[in-house]
């Protein structure tokens, strides 16, 4: 099948040849030390490969590919007679209807054992409606709360839900300020006027209100803004102690550059997305240093694994790649334990196992375990900071690999 | 050709479409594509009533579609109200919105009308994004998943019943369009299309004709929104109020198929939806983005060959074959 071309495994086995091999194996058990290669196991990967989120989708695909290649190189799924993993990769586009159609296609035509994806929450939500109805496990790193609060049986969320990430962004910032001897009283929020910006900023605003902290600047701006100086002037006048700019890559580059050029060096806390990818550093150079951001996972937590990504692809393992790799790691263990391609058996393993082997260990706490809702109980958001082209985890303390630099 | 040719063709087509899904996997991929194709054929036909017959090019029909999707889903979530009733309520709201919108737009012509309607659709998208307490905001909204099958609640274990709902809706909408097209209203609308001032001079109440056409179109579009919500189970403001995903696509399907004709939206949807799917499935993984590119090129080529769409194109081909055959 043309779609499967990207996969690296030996997918060329036909049903007939497998049956023939199987028959041969049955006929001469004494002569064969171990089982013959089985039919490949199809794993569905649905990520945005075109449109605004394409780069994140490609990163995600790379992460999954790396793990699948390693599994195949190490002899495939051993409990299934060394069956190889065959990734069926498809473009989710940026349209939920299309994403659900792609999922349907994979399930009926490629007979996938599970689906991984789809980066953007709206795409994942649409896909989950289809996978749930067919009982196919879906592993995701999308963090919308809605993904796991609908009582679905077949969806597994490897990162903390969005509300926790939102609250952590604020709480961690306050804790870091306190450590630096500063009491947080005034904060500024600026956000792009899109679905992403609106929902992220709403979480921040609520956390600030709950903590009784004044939001002295709360400004939406249009996506793709070309002149940020009014925003920066307002920020200067607002006398805020920290600023939370919620934006994707291009706007964040513009905002941080203008701030630094005008000598505003208050701590700047991004909301994942564009703030923790190599392009951010490339676009800003040294100005990127000491910018903080929340992240659902960080590559410095498990360098033994994540450095393999850097070796293969030439850039550090961005969080979406890492989390998707962890999803693939969990699925690998579940397949080994289930010993079959049966959806229910795999789901059973995903629900009831503790994943503390292989790629699952790259998540915080070094393991993954899903509760009844399908949420990873060990997941914890992390605060990371740019330091000379690398991201360093600075909070919470038990995960920190470096000291925070508060005022830059 | 006898006057029974087209009716019998329609009967054959409906029979084939009714029997076709029985040969397919009821939870499968093909049946889903057919459902989406019928959804968009119905939407194209609804658009055709105003856009095709009266040449009022609306780029804001997503407003009605989204109203239908949101109304029924919100009522279902809050009060467990049947989507059938929610859908009817959605139609009522869409009609009210159409009436409201007609006040400032009915005197507008051409590009101005298109722009005004485009703005109306976008306004609804912004409202759905910001009114998070009711609509669920930018994250989107899910239809609660019930494991019980119920026609009243539009919950089915497979896609097959959805398929028949779409088919029935499509047939009804085509009949409505045909009724309007061949009736007095159709003549009035075509008079408006040709020359609005002349139509007024000969005594056509152009305001009333346009108003009736746009409310019928709005109501139909809203109900399709409800059917879509119950089929897709999850949607967000950017999808149901989207310019590219709904508004332009509705118009595109009618225009590409053959604007103002009964067959146009059917051909348009039967062509565009499978082609999009084919492009995504074959180029989606290897050269993502190429699918949209190829799709765009094909659309441009068809419109260049014959701006009146597939219906005219087929007519052209038919004529050529007949004239080559040396008839007459």
TrEMBL record, chain A:
Entry-linked InterPro entries: BCAA_transport, Leu-bd, Leu_Ile_Val-bd, Peripla_BP_I, TAT_signal
Bilayer-spanning residue ranges: none
This protein's record includes keyword Phosphoprotein: no
N-terminal signal peptide: 1-20
Domain Leucine-binding protein residues, every copy: 41-382
GO biological process: amino acid transport
CDD domains for this protein: PBP1_ABC_ligand_binding-like
Keyword Zinc: no
SUPFAM superfamilies registered for this protein in UniProt: Periplasmic binding protein-like I
Keywords: Amino-acid transport, Signal, Transport
Similarity comment: Belongs to the leucine-binding protein family.
Protein name per Swiss-Prot or TrEMBL: Branched-chain amino acid transport system substrate-binding protein
Gene source species: Sulfitobacter brevis
Automatic annotation (TrEMBL), chain B:
InterPro entries linked to this entry: ABC_transp_permease (IPR001851), LivM-like (IPR043428)
Molecular function GO labels: branched-chain amino acid transmembrane transporter activity
Location relative to the cell: Cell membrane
Pfam families assigned: BPD_transp_2
Domain of life: Bacteria
UniProt keyword Metal-binding present: no
UniProtKB keywords: Cell membrane, Membrane, Transmembrane, Transmembrane helix
Ranges in coiled-coil conformation: none
CC annotations in GO: plasma membrane
Main location: membrane
Transmembrane segments: 6-24, 31-50, 62-79, 84-103, 163-180, 251-273, 293-314
Membrane topology classification: Multi-pass membrane protein
CDD domains on file: TM_PBP1_LivM_like
The name this protein goes by in its record: Branched-chain amino acid transport system permease protein
Species in which this protein is naturally found: Sulfitobacter brevis
Top-level taxonomy: Bacteria, Pseudomonadati, Pseudomonadota, Alphaproteobacteria, Rhodobacterales
